[in-house]
Design goal:
With about 290 residues, the chain is of the alpha/beta class. It has two domains: about 1-95, 2-Layer Sandwich (60s Ribosomal Protein L30, Chain: A), CATH 3.30.1330.10; about 100-285, Phosphoribosyl-aminoimidazole Synthetase, Chain A, domain 2 (Alpha-Beta Complex). It has helices at about 15-30, 55-70, 120-130, 135-145, 150-155, 170-180, 200-205, 210-220, 230-240, 255-265; strands at about 1-10, 35-45, 75-80, 85-95, 110-115, 160-165, 185-190, 225, 245-250, 270-280, 285. The chain has a seven-stranded mixed beta sheet, sandwiched between helices. It has a four-stranded mixed beta sheet with strand order 1-4-2-3, with helices on one face. Helix 1 (about 15-30) packs parallel to helix 2 (about 55-70), helix 7 (about 200-205) packs across helix 9 (about 230-240) and helix 8 crosses helix 9.
């Protein structure tokens, strides 16, 4: 049995969409461990003077619909008054102990697969600042509401040695944890890391960078960057994601099967972005 709890304040204006994103984000932790969500409970904070009952109902409906999509049972929850809206889930999942994916299971020689492109933090910040990002708003929402269900399928097939999902600490933060816990150094080929769109890098150059992303880059002090790596690329790798993709370490022998399964299950992407090598003085080397 695996359990997780996550919630956050709104990152979109539409309450139903907010509920969907928050639920997908909460469910992701179970999928990242190779589990199947079984039950979930709502965690809700409501500012009574600022949020209507209809808005609360739409948030809960968005979450309930996403939980149902996951084949999970919404068993109840708890609501409190709070100065700002909060929503998320406590999720219980099941995974066979021999199939459990942890951030301590990667080994030298493993290849790294990323299942969603990066940039939701940048795009959300641009939207909050009134920058017209066109259809990228819908693209970002579609990614954040996409469940990371392939994690359970990959674990059941025995194709993953270690992994995590990429959320608030960005790719560098979460990959750094995998490298440290696994006793290896991660090598990232920056030209293989997909942004949601090239416009994301342009927005970074224009200063549309959330504070969390900047803090993530500062925290990644044990990461080495190749000479000449643009600041925009460093910030993309550190971008704080909401309901981001899976980051998986697989053996070279399992790579083709893993990529085929990700394609079959509809993962937004399945990019090989690097590999693990024997531990040196760095958590991550960005080439």
């Amino acid at each position: 049995m695996v359990q997780t709890l996550d919630f956050f304040t709104p990152i979109v204006d539409d309450p139903y969409t907010y509920g969907q994103i928050a639920a997908a984000n909460s469910l992701s932790d179970v999928y990242a461990m190779g589990g199947l969500p079984v039950t979930a409970m709502n965690v809700v904070g409501v500012p009574l003077e600022h949020l209507s009952l209809e808005d609360v109902n739409q948030i809960l409906k968005g979450g309930a619909d996403k939980v149902a999509e996951a084949g999970c049972v919404l068993a109840g929850g708890h609501t409190v008054q709070n100065p700002e809206p909060l929503y998320g889930l406590s999720v219980t999942g099941l995974v066979h102990p021999d199939q459990l994916i942890t951030n301590a299971g990667a080994a030298a020689g493993d290849l790294l697969i990323l299942t969603k492109p990066l940039g939701t933090g940048i795009l959300s910040t641009a939207t909050k600042r009134g920058v017209d990002i066109g259809s990228l708003s819908d693209r970002s929402i579609a990614l954040m509401t996409t469940l990371n269900t392939p994690g359970a399928d990959l674990a059941k097939a025995g194709l993953v040695r270690g992994g995590t999902d990429v959320t608030g600490f960005g790719l560098l933060g979460h990959l750094g944890a995998v490298a440290r816990e696994s006793g290896v150094t991660a090598v990232v080929h920056s030209d293989q890391v997909p942004p949601i769109d090239d416009m994301v890098l342009s927005l970074i150059d224009e200063g549309c960078v959330p504070g969390g992303t900047k803090a993530n880059l500062e925290a990644a002090s044990n990461t080495s960057f190749a000479a000449g790596t643009p600041d925009s690329l460093k910030l993309l790798l550190a971008d704080a994601q909401t309901s981001g993709g899976l980051l998986l370490a697989v053996t070279p022998e399992s790579l083709d099967q893993a990529l085929a399964l990700l394609k079959e299950k509809g993962a937004p992407c399945a990019e090989v972005i690097g590999e693990m090598k024997p531990r040196n003085d760095h958590d991550i080397e960005v080439l």
